[in-house]
Amino acid sequence: MDDYLGQTVFSDPGDLDADALPTDPGQLVALVRGLIIHRLEGPRFGYDIPRDRLHEDAESRYVTEILRILRERRDVPLTEARAPRERFVGTCRDFSLLLCSLLRATGTPARIRGGFATYFVADFLEDHWVTEYRLPDGSWRLVDPQVLHPSYEPPFDPLDVPRDRFLVAADVWRGCREGRIDPARCGFHSVDRLRGLWLVRARLLQDLAALSGVEPLPWDGWGPRQILDDASLTDADLARTDTLARDGGPVSVPDAITSYTTYDGVRQITLRRSSPPA
């Protein structure tokens, strides 16, 4: 992942004809917004999402699977408008990964970033994923395809998310450890047990894994010990995570991981290490 232009196993779009896509990042953000509906967005679109799509779609960790589902629902070019029922039902990670894939496919270096957004709930850092792409001058810009919709009304341009409105996980970890951020106000505001320093640590490991070429689902975990609450964090865990937050990765992800998926329960997953044949 030296330049973030090459595809990973996760972002690889397979046999997609990239020549038919726009190359402008802003146009690609709008395109992705029209291909995915977040699994909590049904009321925003007046669409009662079928229950099977709520979990089957969101378990599609590879872009090839996202594109397959989109073709099954309506086999037309990605640039054509879709009704909500014809879209992929995903999460913020899926918006971010599909955009990352299309940016890379059309010549723009990109990566997904795990962290926390300040723009969903007041005085709360909501667990979230966005896309980051490289500008011609070498700098990086954050974009949030999910909130590029009139119903969100973020107080900024979703095509240029300020760094103080979306904080990458390492910055949040350091803020928590230095006493500037309350870990209890980090995570998922609607689920009390999905908050805390342990979750900030989990997102930091996932963010570094994504930067290292393994773009995980939000509920993936790995390692000899699964840490699911603050009480399980040892002094050694804290020290190791302090180092990662300061120095970065790379982070090595094993072939076998644990998926703490919402609908299907805890499962062991073996990750692909190569893309399937076209």
UniProtKB/TrEMBL annotation:
Pfam families: Transglut_core
Annotated ranges, domain Transglutaminase-like: 84-147
Source superkingdom: Bacteria
Name of the protein described by the UniProt record: Transglutaminase-like domain-containing protein
